[in-house]
Design brief:
alpha/beta; Quinone Oxidoreductase, Chain A, domain 1; Rossmann fold; 2 domains; six-stranded parallel β-sheet; 9 helices
Length: 327
Amino acid sequence: MKALTATRYGGAETLRLADLPIPEPGPGQVQVRIAAAGLNPADLRLVSGVFKERVPLTFPHVLGSDFAGTVTAIGAGVDRFVPGDEIFGLGLSRSAGALARLLCDPPPFTTGTMAEYAVFEATTPALAPRPSGLPAEHAATLPMAALTAFPLLRAWDFAPGTKVLVVGATGGVGGAVVPLLAARGVHVIATAIPADETYVKGLGAAETIDRSADVGAETLRRHPGGLDALVNLALPGGDLPALTPVVRPGGGLFTVAFPSPAPGTGFETLYATARPGDLEEVAELAMRGVLAPTAGRRYRLEDAARAYTGWEREHVRGKLVVTVQQT
């Protein structure tokens, strides 16, 4: 089979399309014919080597976590899925044991989704049926983004009328966070470049602030009493203390970006988690139009390395998705 692999630690320049054996499912596993796969920042972060002490990779390493596809074979003891089932979800390399266990239990181990076939643990809550009305390309952009957004919405009372600054709203996670907050009646102020203003408002943002401006000063100029919460999806932790004055005393300070801020800054770092039923809810929200398609660019598997190069070097709006096989 064809698969996008990293041959060593480094950036997108290490990626190669390779011919590999089709992975076979063992006990408790399912084999999936991948239709589409979504890119995530963590894909390149693992390859960069920044986590290699905790998450040592074996090369060649197949990239990819988000996916949608068709079950093609099952291992012994699997009764959750049968061949022919359309599913979607995410998985992490077995090397990422601690990170995978943080996401959910059982962990969502996979052989890598930027490939024609991948194997997954059948019982993980990071897999779910894909409704027939949910296109594979749309489904493949949802899992990591939505499963990062859900813990945020559970962490604080985002009541109707709440005023919240979302930093980094144009990225993949923003495509889930902004509409889910807006669906609750939250007044979302989103940072974005001017060219992305229409896109972010289409997600549900009530206001936008040019991210190249002094975001803190402009926020307080518009809302001198301060906001109820700040949600950071993009800035490294060291940049966050400068923005804390925009939030009134007692308000919420949250981040999902890497690296985390230093202790004592008041920010709570949240991680993607998958509870049983979460992805089924994600599918329902997508079918209702709450989680609309956010794929900014589409690539074929043979061009997947170029997709990661673009993500690494260029401004990206929404999610990048790779079409692996036609469904």
